[in-house]
Design brief:
- With about 190 residues, the protein is an all-alpha fold.
- It has one helix at about 5-170.
């Protein structure tokens, strides 16, 4: 390995430092140019924004002024119409109370009519059912008694015939069957 003396080493360090400073200067110049370009672009954007917002701000000022005029006119109108509206509201409240009272009276009357109709219907239904019951009892009494008597006579006649037959032939007596036993099921 060659030997370097102090002066050569200093020269090498100075050259490296000079290159580093030169490189730093180039980087700083590039940053400066990029910032300058960015600022110019930003200024153009701000100018475009300003040119588009200025008419809107002017329109907003005009709108605010028109709104103030409208609010003043509305307040004046409300000052004129307010007492009339209050009177109308009071009249409507009176009408509503009257309608409510009449509705309550009509409801009371309707409930009374419904209750009377229900009671009358119950009486009519009770009377009709009582009449049907009495008619049924009458029919059972007038038709049932002769039917029972006829059934008794038929049973007696059958018993007599069976007993007369039984004396001529010695069969075991069969139990008597009534004509309506077949219809009953227990």
């Amino acid at each position: 390995m060659p030997k370097f003396d102090n002066q050569t080493i200093e020269l090498a360090f100075t050259a490296v430092t000079a290159l580093a400073v030169l490189l730093q200067a180039i980087v700083l110049l590039a940053i400066y140019l990029a910032l300058r370009k960015g600022i110019a672009s930003l200024r153009a954007e701000v100018e475009d924004l300003r040119s588009s917002l200025t008419p809107m701000v002017d329109n907003a000022k005009e709108l605010i002024e028109n709104s103030r005029v409208l609010v003043d006119k509305t307040q004046a109108l409300l000052a004129r119409v307010g007492p009339k509206a209050e009177s109308t509201v009071n009249d409507m409240a009176r009408v509503a109370r009257g309608v409510r009272d009449q509705t309550a009276q009509a409801e009371f009357t309707a409930k009374d009519i419904i209750e009377r109709t229900r009671r009358q219907t119950e009486r009519l239904a009770t009377n009709a059912l009582d009449t049907v019951d009495r008619a049924g009892s009458y029919v059972v009494e007038t038709v049932g008694r002769p039917a029972r008597q006829l059934a008794g006579i038929i049973a007696a006649a059958k018993a007599i015939v069976e007993s007369l037959r039984g004396s001529s032939s010695s069969r075991e007596p069969q139990p008597a069957r009534f004509f309506d036993d077949e219809d009953r099921f227990v």
